[in-house]
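Chapter summary example: a protein plus flavin mononucleotide.
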Amino acid sequence: MTSSLGPIPIKSPFILAPMAGCTDLPFRLLCREYGAGLCYSEMIDCQGLVSRQQDCLELLPTNTSDQPVIMQLYGNDPGTMGEAAAILSEHPIAGIDINMGCPMEKIIQQGAGAALMKNPRLAEKIITAVCKKSTKPVTVKIRSGWNQHTITAPEIAKIAAGVGAQAIAIHARTWSDGFTGPIDHGVIQQIMKNVSIPVIANGDITSHEQGVALLKKIGCAGVMIGRAALGAPWIFSGTVNQHPSMAYRIKALLRHLELAEAYLTPEPNLSKIRNHAWKYFRGTTNGPVIRKQIDATTSYTELKTFIHTLADQVLQK
Ligand SMILES: Cc1cc2nc3c(=O)[nH]c(=O)nc-3n(C[C@H](O)[C@H](O)[C@H](O)COP(=O)(O)O)c2cc1C
């Protein structure tokens, strides 16, 4: 399946969602090996990027296999968001996304992330500033609104398209819904009627088949998958059994570890890698026991030895 997201050519409309602490370079590369057509980075604090903070700079690595990639910024100040967009534009990326969906307290308190869904005027200033300073296509990731009484997504999508955004991704829940409750496909369709730029649907897609069905049903430009891809990057493949064997899971995890060793410094990233490893055993009979053993590892070397021992046992059978 070949398609495009506005000016960004993509080989598949299946898109990896931005996830802080998860969608680093190794995980993006792994998802691509299974067919992800586009991957988003973790969110990057615009202020931290402008002041060249180490923790922000560490989110920037990418390479030629990691294409197309969209890097995501968050912030509440149009000027700083614009400056950060100019910095990101120097990097070999396909686009810059603006986070208007993060529900975390510390982000909301700044008036950033999902708080922008209740402040269309500030949202407009931020999107305008980023579009002006970016030499890359700009996308915006929104929620349905702030709460069920404040469904601002159609209005904000229109504003975004009007000031130059080239695609919209919508997690079709409000800020007050958090990560639970039904996904509002109606609001996605309403946005699609309101704007002529591509719209990406996001929220609760838990299998490849479900993604295909949604693409067919509403005709959106792409489907974005977050949580269901964690520990299950094969969700991007239309050919892999979506509930694979233990042996298959372990092989995928071993590949993940290989990529983590190649592109991260594993020891300081132990908890991040352990979190990923944990998720490969979701829904498996021995999962609870394996997860306890993963939790008990205190170094990357120990974690790797444990997974390799497990692989020897399982793959020999
Ligand atoms: C651990 C985690 C981290 C996330 N970090 C981000 C982020 O950095 N930026 C963002 O726009 N959304 C973030 N999200 C939201 C996801 O991109 C996505 O919109 C949401 O999980 C709904 O999609 P899903 O049901 O496929 O998971 C995060 C979600 C999770 C679970």
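Key point: The two ends are 36 Å apart (CA to CA).
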